[in-house]
Amino acid sequence: MRGVKRIRFVGLALDPTDRWISLGGIRLYNKGVVLQPGALISEVGSVAETQNMIARASNKYKTHYLVQHAIMTNRSQTGIYPNNGYWLAADNTISAFYEIELKIASDVDVLEWVQRPDSQYGQRGTANPMNIEFYKGDGSLIEKVTMNGNRAPDSITRLLLPSKVQKWLVETEETIKYWTGAEWSPVQETG
Questions:
Q1: Among 37, 58, 36, residue whose Cα is nearest residue 47
Q2: How many angstroms from the chain centroid is the CA of residue 102?
Q3: Dihedral, CA atoms, 34, 40, 1, 23, nearest 10 degrees?
Q4: Helix, strand, coil % in the chain, rounded to nearest 5
Q5: SS3 of 70, please?
Q6: Which residue in 51, 47, 83, 52 sits closest to 67, CA to CA?
Q7: pTM summary value
Q8: HSE-CB of 99 using CA atoms within 13 angstroms
Q9: pLDDT tens readout for residues 9-65
Q10: Which of 54, 73, 116, 138 could bond to 125 as cystine, CB 3.0-4.6 Å?
């Protein structure tokens, strides 16, 4: 997916088997390389700013389930608290959200998250289906994805985000060619 500026996990709800809404181990990839959030600059309320990203949540539980923990790549994607990275909502009666804003828009071809993080305490996670929205820098919606993630404890859900290829036609005196996304190829005539 090209030119992603913001990713929103919206309408996060409590599953009947969980006690707390939670989300963790969020990773964004561009061509196999994880996009790094960078060092933490500040966290005020439910907004955390890192060098390369801003994470926002509907709220957070107390002071030790920090908003930025879900995106920090220097923490384990899965595992036992306090060494793994996840956010925990403070109020499970609302429809929660978690948002990541990239300071510089980027292509994102894979999104990963852990829907039931932290096997030590359990009873924390997010119900299916997951609703994920992708936005451009101008605020326009690129795409909304609704899917069922993996609710097994400490399991990573992976969403592939292919980019749509624009095809261009060019006509010369000799032939008509089109751009395949990698090279110019002649259009075959079909009588």
A1: 58
A2: 11
A3: 90
A4: 0, 45, 50
A5: helix
A6: 47
A7: 0.84
A8: 20
A9: 999 999 999 999 999 999 999 999 999 999 999 999 999 999 999 999 999 988 878
A10: 116
| Residues ≥6 apart with Cβ < 8 Å to 173 | none
Q: Are 125 and 116 in contact (CB under 8 A)?
A: yes
Q: How far apart are alpha carbons 91 and 115 in whole angstroms? A: 17
Give the C-alpha separation, 134 to 95, whole Å. Answer: 18
CA distance 177 to 60: 55
pLDDT tens sequence across 81-105: 777 789 999 877 778 999 999 999 9
